[in-house]
From TrEMBL:
Single Gene Ontology MF annotation: DNA binding
InterPro entries: Cro/C1-type_HTH (IPR001387), Lambda_DNA-bd_dom_sf (IPR010982), MLTR_LBD (IPR041413)
Source species: Lysobacter firmicutimachus
Protein name: Helix-turn-helix transcriptional regulator
The HTH cro/C1-type domain, residue ranges: 11-65
CDD domains in alphabetical order: HTH_XRE
Pfam families named among the record's database cross-references: HTH_31 (PF13560), MLTR_LBD (PF17765)
Length: 271
């Protein structure tokens, strides 16, 4: 998104991305439709409070709220630090607590572009055989999953899993306006897949929980996953951090993961 554009144009783009009319947004923000129109056309410059109210109603990501602030001639409001920053030490500890507390089942943390930040010890066995160039940082977990040299050859239900990931990624790219996610979707959609399974074939329940079935040294494993995000972050980095946790989808997988967990060394006190 071009941060040199007027703030009104940026707000209009977000409104249209959310499929809202000016009247809809005015109702949500409890202001007049005329005021919304004046802001979008540049006839009125929003105050910081008004800009924050509109951004909140439009569910604009924190990173893009900073862009809106800058476009309006205001100072960015949300800090952006690396997760290793001492100021985010408690957040890093919370991430580690979730990841390692989920063992013996896999869990991983990713950034806004699905690049791997960290993972627990149960993830490593699933990556056996994945090409080294896919695991080099920044390693993208969606690319690892669907690339022909990644997990794809070992995913039992590749067509269904691929359709699920592409649907989720397309929705995320559309809702955030992130060009990197759109490019990633185009790349992944171009990977070969013998299973002719389209996103439209997914059942309504499949959008909630699609099993991830993969062949491994422990036999065929089946997982369902959930995504966890920080509830009310005031830092851009934390707002874009997500933790994906995998749970056994059948008794055989649960038993295999318990057996794997029995081989793990106890974690040091820091974890």
């Amino acid at each position: 998104m071009n941060d040199l554009r007027p703030v009104g144009e940026l707000l209009r783009d977000w409104r249209q991305r959310r499929r809202l009319t000016q009247f809809d947004l005015a109702e949500m923000a409890q202001i007049s439709t005329r005021h919304v129109s004046f802001i979008e056309t540049g006839r009125s410059l929003p105050s910081r409070a008004m800009l924050l109210r509109l951004a909140d109603r439009l569910e604009v990501p924190l990173r893009e709220r900073n862009v809106l602030m800058t476009a309006a001639g205001l100072a960015p409001m949300y800090a952006e630090r690396r997760l290793e920053d001492p100021a985010l030490r408690e957040a890093q500890a919370a991430v580690d607590l979730v990841l390692y507390g989920h063992e013996p089942h896999p869990a991983l943390a990713v950034d806004r572009h699905w690049n791997l930040i960290s993972h627990n010890r149960a993830v490593a066995p699933l990556l056996a055989g994945v090409a080294e160039h896919l695991l080099a940082r920044p390693s993208n977990v969606l690319r690892v999953s669907l690339h022909p040299e990644g997990l794809a050859p070992r995913i039992v239900n590749l067509g269904e899993w691929r359709a699920h990931l592409l649907h989720r990624l397309r929705h995320l790219a559309d809702s955030t306006g992130d060009a990197v996610l759109a490019e990633l979707h185009a790349e992944l959609a171009a990977y070969p897949c013998e299973d002719d399974y389209d996103e439209s074939m997914l059942s309504p329940t499949a959008h909630v929980a699609v099993p991830f079935r993969v062949r491994s040294d422990f036999g065929e494993l089946a997982f369902i996953s959930t995504i966890t995000v920080f509830g009310t972050p005031l830092d851009v980095t934390l707002s874009e951090l997500a933790i994906e946790s995998f749970f056994p989808a059948d008794a055989a997988t649960a038993q295999a993961m318990r057996a794997f967990g029995a081989t793990l060394e106890p974690l040091p006190p820091s974890h």
